[in-house]
């Protein structure tokens, strides 16, 4: 179950924190997930869980039933398998203790084999019969309460409570003299219900344990290019409110194989526009230091350099197009192609303001003429 729903659980379970612990770290990237976003993720989670929970095998059930005249009848149910689970109603709510996921009105379909045997003084030999049966479970309810903490830059997932309850069971027998034994099998309703509740709860607990291990093993750096990576270390517990939850990661760029030094950048939280539309699910806020760190890494890696040899009006990249403006250029290099050599001479200066980003980019533009065997710079413009 954990492997198939893992990617859908991650965002949903970011909210599972109870006590907010202040951290000396500060996140430069903040993701705000609204209740509508959580509800959307919850629906995805349940859709995946419906298929990943099944088939689910239940342990064999044995029971002795005393019947007048016949005496004690030994009955066994085996090969009990939950084949299908369908959820009709679910809710997700946030609170001080984390997040609570409730599933109600779910149904489940089971198949099983049945067998009985008995012996009595009236009949000197053992009497037995067997067949198969289908079971319909109605009103299956599941409740989960979880928390998520930040631990050493990763996420620690804990299951606080897990409960499962079966409200109604209908059993239909096939094979043998099933019409005769229906009453005997009905005596198993309680045991079947308990087996379903225990099996589903155990499956969920095992999935949460596996998910916790996967969350803690998530990388703390996300590769962006072959020379740059993004620090995605969590810097605090998720912050929970009635309308949303906030997640903070370090969010600074660094050259690969180099640690991002958080103190290298002045941390100044910039104002961000509010998300007013009702259908917005996630809002991501970036501090200007995210872009500053990215531009610094790209500049140091010598990636702010471009050759322009294609433009909408290609005649502009030929000396013939300039013969009336710069006659000397055309005279020296008649009908020669040209290109523009663009280089950023120092790290760009970026400032993030409300509703706009201001950038000052020191740029050198060198105009090159392409001769037969060499590239000849003929002019340089600096900004």
TrEMBL record:
Q: Which UniProt keywords apply?
A: Glycoprotein, Signal
Keyword Kinase attached: no
Superkingdom as given in the UniProt entry? Eukaryota
What is the annotated signal peptide range for this record?
1-23
Matches recorded under SMART domains: BPI1 (SM00328)
Q: Which residues form the Lipid-binding serum glycoprotein N-terminal domain?
A: 33-258
Check the record and name the Pfam families matching this protein.
LBP_BPI_CETP, LBP_BPI_CETP_C
Entries under InterPro entries matching the protein: Bactericidal_perm-incr_a/b_dom, BPI/LBP_pln, Lipid-bd_serum_glycop_C, Lipid-bd_serum_glycop_N
Q: What's a single GO MF annotation on this record?
A: lipid binding
Q: Per the similarity annotation, which family is this?
A: Belongs to the BPI/LBP/Plunc superfamily. BPI/LBP (TC 1.C.40) family.
Protein's name according to its UniProt entry: BPI/LBP family protein
Please tell me the species this chain comes from: Sesamum radiatum
């Amino acid at each position: 179950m954990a492997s198939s729903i893992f990617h859908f659980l991650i965002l949903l379970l970011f909210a599972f924190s109870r006590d907010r612990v202040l951290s000396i770290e500060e996140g430069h990237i903040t993701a705000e997930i609204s209740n509508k976003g959580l509800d959307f993720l919850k629906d995805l989670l349940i859709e995946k869980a419906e298929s990943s929970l099944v088939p689910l095998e239940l342990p064999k059930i044995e029971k002795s039933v005393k019947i007048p005249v016949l005496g004690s009848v030994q009955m066994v149910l085996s090969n009990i398998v939950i084949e299908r689970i369908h959820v009709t109603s679910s809710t997700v709510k946030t609170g001080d203790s984390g997040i609570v996921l409730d599933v109600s009105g779910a149904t489940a379909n089971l198949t099983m084999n049945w067998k009985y045997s008995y012996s009595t003084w009236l009949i000197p030999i053992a009497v037995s019969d067997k067949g198969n049966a289908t079971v319909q479970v109605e009103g299956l309810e599941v409740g989960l309460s979880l928390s998520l903490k930040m631990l050493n830059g990763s996420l620690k997932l804990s299951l606080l409570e897990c409960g499962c309850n079966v409200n109604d069971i209908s059993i239909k027998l096939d094979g043998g003299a099933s019409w005769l034994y229906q009453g005997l099998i009905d005596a198993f309703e309680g045991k079947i219900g308990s087996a379903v509740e225990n099996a589903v709860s155990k499956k969920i607990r095992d999935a949460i344990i596996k998910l916790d291990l996967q969350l803690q093993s998530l990388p703390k750096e996300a590769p962006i290019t072959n020379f740059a990576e993004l620090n995605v270390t969590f810097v605090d517990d998720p912050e929970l409110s009635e309308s949303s939850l906030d997640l903070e990661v370090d969010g600074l760029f660094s050259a690969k194989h180099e640690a991002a030094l958080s103190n290298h950048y002045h941390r100044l939280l910039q104002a961000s526009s509010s998300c007013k539309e009702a259908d917005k699910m996630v809002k991501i806020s970036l501090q200007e230091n995210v872009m500053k760190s990215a531009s610094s890494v790209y500049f140091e890696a010598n990636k702010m350099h471009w050759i322009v040899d294609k433009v909408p009006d290609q005649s502009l990249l030929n000396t013939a197009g300039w013969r009336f403006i710069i006659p000397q250029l055309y005279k020296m290099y008649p009908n020669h192609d040209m290109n523009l050599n663009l280089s950023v001479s120092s790290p760009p200066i970026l400032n993030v303001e409300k509703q706009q980003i201001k950038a000052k980019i020191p740029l050198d533009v060198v105009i090159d003429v392409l001769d037969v065997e060499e590239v000849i710079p003929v002019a340089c413009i600096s900004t």
